Amino acid sequence: MAIRAYLRALSLSAALAASLFSAAWTSAQQVHIPASALETPVAVASEVQEVLARGQVLESERKWGEALSVYEDALREHPELAALQQRVTIARMHLDVARRYSDADFVTSVTRMTEQQALDLYAEVLQKIETNYVHQPDWRELVDRGATQVEASVTEPAFGDVRLANLSPEQREAFLRDFRPALAQYRALNRTEARNLTAWGARFAAQRLGVPPQVFVMEFICGAGNGLDRYSTFLTSTQLDDIFSQIEGNFVGLGIELKTEEDSLDVVNVIAGSPAEKGGLRTGDRILGVDGQTVAALTSEKAADMLKGPEGSTVQLDVAEESGQTRRLLLTRQRVELPSIEGARIIDPEYGVAYLRLPAFQKTTSRDLNEALWKLYREGMKSLIIDVRGNPGGLLDSSVEVADKFITEGKIVSTRGRNSREDSDRFANRYNTWRVPLVVLIDQDSASASEIFAGAIRDSRRGVVVGERSYGKGSVQGIFPLNTSKAGLRLTTAKFYSPSGQAIANAGVAPDVTVQITAKPVAETGENVAADEDAILNAGLEVARQRLSQR
C-alpha cells in the first residue's frame, strides 16, 4: 500500500543513510516573500481566518489528517504565516500519535524499554540533530516541542484511552494546566541541559499520570524530531523499514495508492501485478470498510494503517465501485515491486512521439530508463515526453542521473547546508547523452527530486516543461538509523537550488507552458486516458509535435 500524501511526508524521503543514500525534500526554513508579492493584509487575514476556522472544526472532530491537508494547502500560499506553521505542527503531532500507537512494534518497544534506555535514545537523537540538522538547534525549543507532543498524546484516544484509562478528565486537565508552567522554571542552553530537563519533565508527567517515565521520554523524542520542520521526523522501526523498502523499490502490502476522504479511502492507482490488481481492486474504487469496520467509524488514517500487515496475512475490504455497486474482497498482502518506469510507448506514431512516466526516483530508475529509451528508439522515437506528475521525489542521485541522460553540460543542481560536507554542485556529463527533443510534464504534486529534474531541464533549456507549478519542496534530507534502538531519524540537512540559483522551497518549478486544469485525469500514467481527456498530456503532445515540425 502507498498513500500519496503519506509517501510525500515519509516513505520516499530517504536521503543520506550512513553516507549511502541521498534525497531531496523541503526544509522548514521559509523563503522570505516580499510584501509586494503578497495580497493585501486584510485579504490575507480574512483568508487565513477562514482556513483556521475550517481546520478547527476538523480538529474538534479529530480528523487530523484532513485538518493537516487544509493547513498545508494554505501554507503553500502563505509560507511565512506563523499561525499556519503552528497548526501544521500540532496536526502532525496528533496524527503521529495515532500512527505510532497503531504500530505494534513501537508499542512493544516502549513497553520493554527502561527509563535509562529511553534517555540514552533521546541523547542520541539530540546528538544527531546537533551534528546534521540544517540549522543550529535551539535546545529550549526542542524541549518545548517535546512538551507539546506530550500534551497532544494525553488528549488523543490512541494514547489516553490505553495509558490513562483510570484517570478522570479533570485529572488530565489538571496535568495539562500545570505541566508547561512547571517546565518553564528551568533552562536548556545545551544538549546536556535539554536531556536533563526532558528527564525531569517525563518524571513529572509519570508522577501525575501514573505512567512509566520512559513512555513520556519517547513522546519528547518524537516531538523533538517532528517539530524541527515539516519533513523531519522520528521513525519507528516499521517506518524505517518502509523507507528502505521504498528505496529498494519493493515493499510488503497491497500495491495501491490512496486518497483519504472522510468516510472512504479512494483508490487513485493500482500497481500492475500487485495483490490489489490480482484481487480485483481497480482505480476509482472506494474502500468503505476494512476487516468489518467502516472507514467512517475508524477514521481514514486508522483504516489506512489497517491495510498494512506482514507478508502472507489477509485483509477484508468492503469496496464501492464508481457505479455505486458494492462488493467484498479478501486480499493477501505480498511483496510488491514498485515500477520505476510506467507506460513507456509511442503515443503518436505519425510524429514518433514517445511517452513514459517516472512515478518516483528509486535505485533502479536510471538503469530501467536506459532500457526503456533503447526500446522506444527501436520503435521509432523521435521526441520524448517524460511525465513526473504526482512524483513525490526519492533519491537525489537518481534524479541527477536521469537529468544527466539528456543534459550535455552545465550544472544540474546545487545543495547548501549548515555543514560544508552538505555543499555540492552536480554537473552534467557529456557521455551517453540522448539528444531527442524533450517535454517534461509536471503538476502541483511533483515534488522534491522530480523538481530537481524538471528544474534542470528548464534552466538548461534542454526541453520544454509543461503543466502546473510544482509542489515546492527544496531540501535534502538524511535518514539516520539510531544505535540505541531499532529506529531512525529523518533530518533536513541542506537546501537545493536549480542551475540558475533559484530556491525550490516554497516556490516550486514554474512550467514553460502553463496548463489550467479543473480535474485530474483518471489515470495519471496517461495509459488509459485519451489526450483530449488529459489537458496537460494534450498540451505536451502539441509542444512535441510543434518542435518536430520546426526541425
Please supply descriptive tags for the structure shown above.
2-enoyl-CoA Hydratase, Chain A, domain 1; disordered N terminus; 551 residues; Pdz3 Domain; 19 helices; six-stranded mixed sheet; globular; single chain; alpha+beta; 3 domains
Notes on the structure:
With 551 residues, the chain is an alpha+beta fold. It has three domains: 41-227, no CATH class; 250-337, Pdz3 Domain (Roll), CATH 2.30.42.10; 342-550, 2-enoyl-CoA Hydratase, Chain A, domain 1 (Alpha-Beta Complex), CATH 3.90.226. It is 43% helix and 19% strand. The strands form four sheets. Strands 1, 4, 5, 6, 7, 8 and 9 form a seven-stranded mixed β-sheet that branches. It has a six-stranded mixed β-sheet with strand order 11-12-13-16-17-20, sandwiched between helices. Strands 2, 14, 15, 18 and 19 form a five-stranded antiparallel β-sheet that branches. Strand 11 (342-348) and strand 12 (353-357) form a beta hairpin. Helix 7 (139-155) packs antiparallel against helix 9, helix 7 crosses helix 11 and helix 9 runs antiparallel to helix 10. The longest helix has 20 residues, at 41-60. It is globular and about 75 Å long. Residues 1-40 and 522-532 have low confidence and may be disordered.
